Amino acid sequence: MDSAATYEKIAQLLHEVDDKLKSASPSSIRDKHLTQDLGLDSLDVIKFVLLVEERFGCKIADEDIDGRGLLKVDNLAAYLAERAAA
Amino acid sequence: MTIGISAIAHAYGRRRIDNVADGVRHGFDESFVREKLGIATRYAAAEDQATSDLATEAARALLDKTGVPAQEIGALIVVTQTPDYQLPHTAALVQKRLGLPAAVASFDMSLGCSGYVYGLSAVAPFLEHRDNARAVLITADCYSKVMNESDRATSRLFSDAAAATLVGPQPLYRLGKPVFSTDGGGAEALIVKCGGSRAPSEHSQLYMDGRAIYSFAMSKVPQHVEQCLALNGLKLDDIDRFVFHQANRFMLESLRDRMKLPPGKVVIEVADGGNTVGSTIPIALEPLLEERPRRILISGFGVGLSWATNVLELCAT
């Protein structure tokens, strides 16, 4: 999956998690932080991460969320690309 | 022998907590507590209250409301993981305080949020060969005694409560065929690491891995519902009410959306009381016994990890 497709998919998942993010586009979520910029709360993050795991077919360890800074969309996209290539 | 549920009563801990105001004081956003968790009020046991106190109060309320004499109770089961003592079992304490006869089978079951569904299925053997005997199934927990009020993962969710259910022949709702599951690999996702034989003297408090519990519920409960319906020869449309473990509003809405269930069929009763562990299902069922929908699916899930699902069917009246 190329980078644009990854961002597209992440944007779709954000639509599912929070109605307020229905207008989020792949370009508008670049450089954004899930909680600080996009307004997800702790439960939204839990739901979002589960959806990412299911739709991208990979388990995400708690240590990676903190250690790799996966609450930043750019870090998450890079992480998912790396996992897909592994 | 066809057995099932005839009546339910419950009791909360004496200390009433405004969960929204208390949450704001602890740094939570008001709308998060009120709308996302959906829990406006919680109840905690007073300093002088323990699990057997709540259990006894709920059981007394049940016997009062049904008029069933104590002599007719053949079994008393207390589902709890916060017993008064490591030993003896809490059911023995409750048996004495209720004035039940010595000829009663009394025992505890160590289960949490799945415990009510398990408990219902555990009753039957203890009523066999006893004419007209009935059982009192109690779910009771005091998580406030093992909780850290400043822990963000658990502090807004739980209440101390007990629910007592009259189980026996000629019921209002008969039990369907249950499905039970366990995954001990997830044991550490919801745990109190003290008081047992591994760490008898350490002081430890409730720990919950919220992400692990959420993922578990979203992946396992929908499957369980399907299995249970298939086992009972039913389809989703045949169920009039879904009573899942009332963990919090967010969890219940997520399950509802994931399973594409009609909102009107999914019971969400968390505003007053929140998550009462094993008692959430009977407390949510209590008003339904008056409303009397034809079929109710009940599904409990949580600590263990353990999950259990069954269908209740209204008997001809």
Summarize the entry for a quick read.
The complex is a heterodimer of chains A (86) and B (317). With 86 residues, chain A is mostly helical. Chain A is built from 4 helices and no strands.
* Helicity range of chain B: 25-40%
| Beta-strand percent range of chain A | under 5%
Alpha carbon gyration radius of chain B: 18 Å
CATH homology superfamily of chain A:
ACP-like
Taking pLDDT < 50 over at least 5 consecutive residues as the criterion, the unreliable ranges of chain A are: none
- The separation of the N and C termini of chain B measures 17 Å
Task: Quickly name the level 1 CATH class of the largest domain in chain B.
Answer: Alpha Beta
Give Rg of chain A in angstroms: 12 Å
> So what's the CATH class of chain A?
Mainly Alpha
What does the largest sheet of chain B look like?
10 strands, mixed
CATH architecture annotation of chain A? Orthogonal Bundle
Shape of chain A: globular
| Average of pLDDT of chain B | 95
Q: What structural class do the secondary elements of chain A suggest?
A: mainly alpha
- Total strands of chain A: the figure is 0
Count of runs of 4 or more consecutive helical residues of chain B: 9
Q: What is the percent of helical residues of chain A? A: 55-70%
What does this structure look like?
The complex is a heterodimer of chains A (86) and B (317). Chain A is an all-alpha fold. Chain A has a single domain, classed as Orthogonal Bundle (Non-ribosomal Peptide Synthetase Peptidyl Carrier Protein, Chain A), CATH 1.10.1200. Chain A is 57% helix and 0% strand. Chain A is globular and about 35 Å long. The mean pLDDT of chain A is 91. In chain B, strands 1, 4, 5, 6, 7, 8, 9, 12, 13 and 14 form a ten-stranded mixed beta sheet that branches. Chain B has a two-stranded antiparallel ribbon with strand order 2-3. In chain B, β4, α4 and β5 form a beta-alpha-beta unit. Chain B has two domains: 3-171, Peroxisomal Thiolase, Chain A, domain 1, CATH 3.40.47.10; 179-314, 3-Layer(aba) Sandwich (Peroxisomal Thiolase, Chain A, domain 1). Chain B starts with a strand and ends with a strand. Chain B has 317 residues and is of the alpha+beta class. The relative contact order of chain B is 0.20. Chain B is globular. Chain B is 30% helix and 25% strand. The model of chain B has no long low-confidence stretch (mean pLDDT 95). Chain B has nine helices and 14 strands. Chain A binds chain B through residues 41-43, 46-47, 49-50, 53, 62, and chain B through 29, 32, 36-37, 152, 209-211, 214-215, 218, 250, 254.
